[in-house]
Amino acid sequence: MKILCLSLFSFFFLQSCVAYAPAPAPVVYPVSSYQVAWESALKAAEDVGIRITHADQATGTIEGHADRTSVLIHVNRQPNERIGLEVSLRGPQQDAYIADEFHKAYERRVGRR
Question: pTM score, two decimals?
Answer without folding.
Answer: 0.69
